[in-house]
Amino acid sequence: MINYAKFLLEPPSFFPTTSIQVVPERRHKYVEGGLIVEFDIPGVIKEDVDLKLEERILTLTAKRKEFKYPYKDRVQIPSKYKTDPEANLLNGVLTLTFKASEFTSRSINVS
User: What angle do CA 64, 68, 69 make, to 5 degrees?
Assistant: First the structure.
């Protein structure tokens, strides 16, 4: 008989362990003047959070001390938001706030 609970918690050896990851629950809200992205990453401290933003792709990797597999997720940030968010981790919720880019219209001279 197969022990399914053990299978879910510890995958068999034929699964490559380097590619197993946990995708955290994610929410986003468009607010006046910005974008708020929230990740639920319980059991993680701020020193174990790695955030990278390359070519408007935000990558989150967060190690969990009690578990073998990290949280990992990727989000594309729309171009109308600045790429220097404020980040806050409180009670297992990582909140990133992206401010809207201020675009001003101007005339362009053609030579």
Answer: 75
Give 32's DSSP letter: T
Domains in the chain (CATH in brackets) are 23-99 (2.60.40.790)
Q: State the greatest distance between any 2 C-alpha atoms of the chain, in Å, as a whole number.
A: 79
| pLDDT tens-digit profile, the chain (111 residues) | 544 444 444 444 444 555 678 899 999 999 988 999 999 999 899 999 999 999 999 999 999 888 888 999 999 999 899 989 999 999 999 999 999 987 666 777 886
Query: Are the CB atoms for 67 and 55 separated by under 8 Å?
Result: no
